[in-house]
Amino acid sequence: MNAVGIIPARFASTRYPGKPLVMLEGKSMIQRVYEQAKKANLQKVVVATDDERIWQHVQEFGGKVVMTSSHHQSGTDRCQEAYSQLGELFDVVVNIQGDEPFIQPEQINKVVGCFAQPEAQIATLIKPVQSQEELFNPNSPKVVIGAQQQALYFSRHPVPYLRGVDQQDWLSAHGFYKHIGIYGYRSSVLAQLTQLQPSPLEKAESLEQLRWLEHGFKIITAVTELETIGIDTPADLEKAVLFLQSQG
Question: Which one of 60, 97, 163, 206 is separated from 32 by 20 to 30 angstroms, measured CA to CA?
């Protein structure tokens, strides 16, 4: 099973423009993501960007990078263009979030490991929900899984609804999972996904993965106990700096 890790990184983020280049204790965010990905069981790691400044910076720290269109609507689309530019064949493409500088190699390896199951077309990570705040936070999507660890549905609302149970007791009455936003795709499936049109459920929840489920693709999940720290705002950056300092 050979796999390539692709890190989409665009400059024009609505909430935090230029965030791939923000510095975290002497290294840019995109360099930290790249270096963590390089520790995983991937045969190649490449940054996919649409900005000359990011392209130049990745070159400077010795990373591999490709230029992609500025018109992509999702990281999935950017991954497909980057993969098509590589001119190499891989069994699996892993989409690694460019704003999670503390992604752990074992998390990436778990995603790749899902493809040992022949029926796996797409893979992602889930984590047990630990708090009421997480459970009812619409910015932390939840996922329902089936008996073979396949994703049945993703939602910004807690699912399932626990009938007859007070909401304050939901967490003790049922095991909920939240979604960790890293994806793996069989390379042949990735090309198909980028041809799909937005679907009704995707539009309702603003979750791209619902488009794939609606079109019948199978998403296999793996459980991680490791937390990720995504950086969407300058306030998140401050938390990340504190985390780094706490690590010594």
Answer: 206
Q: Give the whole-angstrom CA distance, residue 97 versus residue 102.
A: 10
Nearest to 246 by CA among 229, 223, 225, 234: 229
Question: Quick check: pTM over 0.85?
Answer: yes
Report pLDDT digits (tens) over 13-70.
766 778 899 998 889 999 999 999 999 999 999 999 999 999 999 999 999 999 998 8
Per-residue pLDDT tens digits for 229-244: 778 777 777 787 777 7
Domain ranges (residues) in the chain: 3-233
Q: Do 230 and 236 meet the contact criterion of CB atoms below 8 Å apart?
A: yes
